[in-house]
Amino acid sequence: MKRALIIIDIQEAFFLEGQPHLWNNEVLIKHINTLITWARHNAVPIIFIQHTDADKDDDFAFGQPGWELYHGLSRQAEDKVIQKTTWDAFYQTELGIYLQQQSIEQLIFAGAQTEFCLDTTIRSAFSHGYHRNLLIADAHSTLDGSVLTAPQIIQHHESIWHHRFVEIQPIIEFQNAD
């Protein structure tokens, strides 16, 4: 089965000084880079999704320092980058067409924010016919909310997604894996 690694919205805005940082961000980046290494070793296409806000003053607006993909990612020039303007990486982007052109059957997800763009894209992928997807535990994150902490948000969403929209896999299965 042909797979693709999709990394959603790991952008500088979540790491800027004075801004809230993603929960467990050092482990997050380490695990995402482990997935990138695994993908390169196994010839799995890597797709970076980059949120682009229409408000030119927003941290995620095109050209703002926060809009750039995070500098700590093991990104290479040949990696695909797809910009999106909504929480759904499929909506009015080239993602669906690109996946079809590459004959991708399974998506492996990582990224941010758990309850926003990751949640919307995971559910949209299922609606687009991708029913055997994986989410890597500790390779996605969010910020504390007004009602729940980041770990509570993550736990809640993983309990909803698992065995429905994705299978949650531990990172260990992608470390030193061929």
TrEMBL record:
Annotated InterPro entries: Isochorismatase-like_dom, Isochorismatase-like_hydrls, Isochorismatase-like_sf
Protein name: Isochorismatase family protein
Keyword set, alphabetical order: Hydrolase
Domain Isochorismatase-like: 4-144
Family the entry assigns: Belongs to the isochorismatase family.
UniProt superkingdom: Bacteria
Claim: Ion transport is one of the keywords in the record: no
Source species: Lysinibacillus irui
Gene3D superfamilies the UniProt entry points to: Isochorismatase-like
Keyword Heme: no
Coiled-coil residues: none
